[in-house]
Amino acid sequence: MLSSCFIVIIWNMAEKEKRKRFTRKKTGKNKDISSEIHEVSSDIVEIERNLIENFIFYLRKWIKTNVRVVRYLLILVISSAVLMFLGVFLYSAVKEKHSREFFSLFKEYKKTTEMPLGAEKNKAFENIAESSLKLCQTGIKTSYSNNACLISSLSHKNIDKVSESINLLKQYSDKNNTEGLIVYTNMIMAAIYSEKYDIEKSIELFQNILPNLKTYESEDIVLYDLGRMYYYKNDINQAKENFQKIIKDHPQSVMIKNAKEYLTLIALNEFENKKGR
User: How far apart (Å, rounded) are the C-alpha atoms in residues 75 and 92?
Assistant: First the structure.
């Protein structure tokens, strides 16, 4: 508001001086151009100084007549700043705590996956599932608490609690609503369903994943898993199509050997079927 007043007044002064110079030129009363510019500049500086002085004068006057309001405003500003600082400090402390807990759980999970099968391994996964679930459901959310949902889901999967695992994966996907993570969590869900022989659901998820893959990264893995599901469903043509697509589009894939093994198995079965006829 104040700067706008400056601009308007300065503009008007400049226009007046222009008109004065034009009139003087016509009447033969020309002055030295540099001295006129200096005079205009001096007038502008004087106007700015007067405006600032008036603004300060009226501001002081307003403060004196509204001491209580000013006091409340200062208290409000200071309180907001203190609360903001405390909030940032608290969140940083909580995030640091979650970070330590998450990496401890991650190391424990990785260690447990390398253990031999047995009751001890299942018990370890149960403990990890419980601890990571507490971190996942904590009141103050951080990236580490969100990632704990994924560890809890995988741990529940390893102790055959499929419904809990799927629900946690959905919760993790909702909290991390980015395209890459949605694809990743859907891949895990599809793998869980395939392990539990829910072939139809697994095929549905794998088919939804393929169009969302921006690059060829992981496409060979999805095609291989999708081919396996079609094979178990006894949809041999669809299975062959997915395995052949890996060989054609991903010649450097680590899944080519497995895809060729399935294609060989399919060819042998077809040969046996023809021979039996």
Answer: 26
